[in-house]
Amino acid sequence: MKSQKISTQFFINYLIIFFLILTLVVTTFLLHNAYTSVLQNDFFIDIDKLIEDYSVYDLKTAAKNQNFTSEDYIEVINEDYEIIDTYNSPKNVGFTYTHKKLNSQIYSDDYYEYYVFYIDGTDNFTLLHMSPINSYTEVILLFIVFFIVLFFVSLIVYAKVSSQKIVIPIKKLVNGIEKISIGDYNSKIEFNATNELDILKNSINEMSNKIKSEINLRQKSEDNRKKLILNISHDVKTPLTNIIGYSQTLLKGKNLSLDDVKSSIKIINTNGLLANKLINELFELSKFEMNNEILPIKSTDICELLRRKLIQYISEFEDKNINYNFNIPNENISLNLNVIQFERSIDNLIQNSIKYNGSNFDINITLKKAMDVITIIIEDTGIGIPKEYHNTIFEPMVRVESSRNRTLGGTGLGLSITKHIIQRHGGTITLDPNYLDGCRFIITL
Ligand code: ADP
After folding, report:
1. How many angstroms separate the CA atoms of 361 and 390, rounded?
2. 60, 95, 196, 202: which one has the fewest Cβ atoms less than 10 Å from its Cβ?
3. Contact 445, 429 (CB under 8 A)
4. Is ligand 1 within 6 A of the CB of residue 440?
5. Which residues, 6 or more positions from 149, have their beta carbon under 8 angstroms from its beta carbon?
């Protein structure tokens, strides 16, 4: 749709109003003229007939044959300005005008009131006094009123019609904004306009959508926070309960065998380590989330770093009958890395593979460079992560099978920390949704 500015619309409106007034003025003028000419015809005096009747009959008969009203009169005046005959005149026969008086009388009031006609062949003339066209001023007034009424009616009709493009959209905008102000972000403002109001409508709708998604996001993060606190409390409580229980047994127990004491201390130690690990990882994660500072980095050969790291795992892989395959180019690819944190993220991924898949599976670690992008792929042929966890697996405390996880010593924070570390290096980490033989984590840097 072609957009039209409000100013253009107003200009068109003013133009239409101008032409409306012009048309009304012309119409009123024409109607007025037509009406007065009809009136004039009604008061038309046939002067030839009047003079003819006067010569055949007398002045009274001649006057009566015309449309004389009671106010009309006629005087026959000779060359000396003396009245020699009258009909209905306030002046009597024998009254003599002075030249000045006659003139002033003829040209006095209304132009239409006095007519002078000479009687053929003589110097006598008739002075015809006609009452002005009936209530002429009333006719003018009538047409002024007619004009004003017509003007206002047309103006109201026009205002109603033209306001559809401005007033109705504004009303809808106001309604929409009121709804947004009371928190109703679902209703959309809808109207068809081709001017700036359309832009305003779209901006308000967009703003409402943004607020809505912002609120949803806040709600979601609030829910996540509550869930996290619940999970943390639960995860800290379990080892602490064990520590308290077994330490009390040791304190109160009588005649405990050395084996019982040893196994209780072992349980206390394992649970203590688990609680400690959880607290440490939570602390790490909080540091990443609270603090956006850039990690201290140095230029490092990433191929060399990976090769060194993997060598550390070879004996564990062989012990557990894990088939390993490293695909790392034999070249120097330098990257700015925080070596400790980066190694930690690689450790997390490899240790997860070992932890959750036990033995007898394959692990492939690949590094590729294409253009300026480095991709590290760590994949295994283990149990994999079910599809429904793919969207949330990098969130803190998300574990596929909580109870099994706890016995394996998992905190559910490893992948979250890994993701933070990779992001701090300007990279991304994803879990390949199309890989179905186990888990495939793809890091791009
Ligand atoms: P945790 O510290 O408990 O290991 P992570 O955040 O590292 O937590 O991992 C989250 C969950 O993802 C784990 O509980 C585990 O179920 C699953 N997971 C991670 N890596 C693998 C993998 N290689 N194979 C199977 N499951 C995995």
Report:
1. 22
2. 202
3. no
4. no
5. none
Q: What is the mean pLDDT of residues 34-53?
A: 74
CA–CA distance from 258 to each of 206, 246, 249, 266, 269 (Å)? 72, 14, 13, 12, 16
The CA distances from residue 383 to 353, 386, 388, 401, in Å, are 9, 9, 14, 12
Among 108, 104, 105, 84, residue whose Cα is nearest residue 95: 84
Mean pLDDT of 348-355: 93
Provide the whole-model pTM: 0.58
Contact status, residue 124 vs residue 116, Cβ threshold 8 Å:
no
Query: What is the CA(221)–ligand 1 centre distance, in A?
Result: 22
Asked whether 414 lines ligand 1 (CB < 6 A), one says: yes
φ, ψ of residue 327 to 5 degrees: the values are: -125, 75
Dump pLDDT digits (tens) for 373-383: 999 999 999 99
Instruction: Give 391-398 contacts, CB < 8 A, sequence gap 24+.
Output: 393/431, 394/418, 394/419, 394/429, 394/431, 395/224, 396/228, 396/285, 397/227, 397/228, 397/231, 397/232, 397/235
Closest CA relative to residue 338, chosen from 441, 444, 426: 426
DSSP 389: G
Atom number, ligand 1, closest to the C-alpha of residue 353: 23
Q: Is the dihedral of CA 198, 199, 202, 204 positive or negative?
A: negative
| No. of helices (H) and no. of strands (E), the chain | 12, 11
Pocket test for ligand 1, best of 322, 385, 435 (most atoms within 8 A of CB): 385
Amino acid identity for residue 70 in this structure = S
β-bridge partners, 77 = 83, 125
- Mean residue pLDDT across the chain: 86
Q: How far is the CA of 81 from the centre of ligand 1 (A)?
A: 133
Q: Whose CA is nearest to atom 13 of ligand 1?
A: 399
Alpha carbon of 352 to ligand 1 centroid (Å): 6
How far does the chain reach from its first CA to its final CA, in angstroms? 46
In the 8-state DSSP scheme, what is residue 57? S
List Cβ neighbours of 426 (8 Å cut-off, separation of 6 or more): 445
Give the span between the Cα atoms of 228 and 226, in whole angstroms: 5
Q: What is the pLDDT of residues 261-279, one digit of tens each?
A: 999 999 999 999 989 988 9
Separation of alpha carbons 383 and 206, rounded Å: 44
> Between residues 210 and 143, which one has the greater pLDDT?
210
Alpha-carbon gap, residue 115 to 89, rounded angstroms: 14
Q: What digits encode the pLDDT tens for the residues 103-132?
A: 888 876 554 578 888 887 888 998 888 776
d(CA 351, CA 414): 10
Surface-to-core class of residue 100, CB atoms within 10 Å of its CB (0-12 exposed, 13-18 middle, 19+ buried): exposed
The structure tokens listed for 95 are 């009254």
